[in-house]
């Protein structure tokens, strides 16, 4: 099992080198943009077929929306950065992180539905006005919220790092340096725990974290979903359009879940290596520093996106 985790971690690392060190990210973005354009061009045809009552048109529309969401998520985006960064910086289980990825994508679709129908019914807004609201107000708000989550991870990581360092310092003063320690941070000579154990520190974060992650991503609705919702509203296909928006969210979620899997795999490999070579307290120090570093990276990415949006 250890070799499987290590191999998967190396594969993730190799993928990261290809993406950011060998121009892979640019090629991936070009491929994703092309696929996104093709899917969007096919949407109008699928909508006309749906309005004409052609058999299978609804499933074709949903399939195209799923494909659009997939290609949209493969390209540069903030959702998968936040999800994968959170998974790398904190020891959240894969199932829960995948659920967060799914929930955030579906919440993004829900925000598009609320924006469109509040806009067209309450304020009689056009598609251009709705897109302007998304790009000029909601996108910067989303980037700022993601930056805030990153800074929160920085603060929490450095706070745990200070606690671990104080616990190590306290132990060094109170006990002989020859004491052995198990990987859970317990001194084998005295039986005392000199600070939180690695397992305790890795317990999944609270509901507050989930709300912050989902809210930060959902603040910016997908413009593709807005496009579909506007067209289906004009055609009188309200329910079909709402379902299409959520199909687009599922396409986005498929990529976010893959990013979550990669992050968890890399973190599991790192955690196992630390547990094999360091005591529980020192491993906790390393993981706390990793959480702060990941948070700093997320905040930097969000700041870059925010500066481009303003």
Largest sheet: none
How much is the radius of gyration in Å? 23 Å
What is the helical fraction, as a range of percent?
over 70%
Mean pLDDT: 78
Computed structural class: mainly alpha
Low-confidence stretches: 1-6, 16-25, 179-204
Strand content: under 5%
Count of helix runs: 11
Find the count of extended strands (DSSP E, 2+ residues).
Answer: 0
**Could you give the distance between the termini?**
48 Å
One letter per element, helices H and strands E, the order comes to HHHHHHHHHHH
Shape: elongated
Q: What would you note in describing this structure?
A:
This protein is mostly helical and 310 residues long. The protein has eleven helices and no strands. α5 (94-122) crosses α9 (223-234) and α6 packs antiparallel against α9. The chain is elongated, with a radius of gyration of 23 Å. The termini are far apart.
Main features:
310 residues, mainly alpha, elongated, single chain
Note the topology.
Layout: H1 2-21, H2 24-51, H3 57-74, H4 79-89, H5 94-122, H6 127-174, H7 198-201, H8 207-218, H9 223-234, H10 238-277, H11 280-309
Helix pairs in contact: 1-2, 1-10, 2-3, 3-10, 4-5, 4-10, 4-11, 5-8, 5-9, 5-10, 6-8, 6-9, 6-11, 9-10, 10-11
């Amino acid at each position: 099992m250890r070799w499987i985790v290590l191999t998967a971690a190396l594969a993730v690392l190799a993928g990261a080198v290809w993406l950011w060190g060998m121009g892979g990210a640019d090629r991936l973005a070009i491929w994703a943009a092309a696929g996104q354009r093709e899917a969007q061009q096919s949407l109008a045809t699928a909508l006309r077929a749906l309005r004409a009552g052609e058999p299978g048109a609804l499933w074709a529309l949903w399939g195209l929306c799923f494909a659009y969401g997939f290609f949209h998520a493969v390209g540069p985006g903030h959702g998968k950065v936040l999800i994968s960064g959170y998974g790398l910086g904190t020891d959240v289980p894969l199932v829960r992180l995948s659920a967060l990825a799914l929930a955030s994508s579906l919440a993004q679709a829900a925000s598009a539905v609320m924006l469109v129908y509040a806009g067209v019914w309450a304020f009689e807004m056009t598609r251009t006005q709705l897109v302007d609201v998304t790009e000029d107000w909601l996108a910067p708000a989303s980037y700022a919220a993601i930056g805030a989550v990153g800074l929160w991870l920085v603060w929490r990581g450095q706070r745990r790092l200070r606690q671990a360092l104080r616990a190590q310092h306290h132990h060094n003063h109170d006990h002989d340096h020859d004491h052995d320690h198990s990987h859970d941070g317990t001194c084998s000579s005295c039986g005392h725990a000199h600070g939180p154990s690695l397992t305790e520190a890795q317990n999944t974060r609270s509901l507050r974290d989930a709300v912050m992650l989902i809210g930060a991503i959902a603040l910016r609705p997908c413009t593709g979903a807005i496009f579909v919702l506007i067209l289906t509203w004009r055609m009188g296909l309200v329910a079909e359009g709402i379902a299409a928006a959520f199909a687009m969210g599922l396409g986005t979620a498929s990529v976010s879940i893959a990013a979550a899997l990669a992050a968890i795999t890399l973190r599991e490999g790192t955690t196992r290596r630390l547990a094999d070579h360091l005591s529980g307290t020192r491993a906790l120090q390393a993981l706390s520093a990793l959480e702060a570093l990941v948070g700093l990276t997320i905040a930097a990415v969000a700041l870059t996106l925010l500066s481009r949006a303003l």
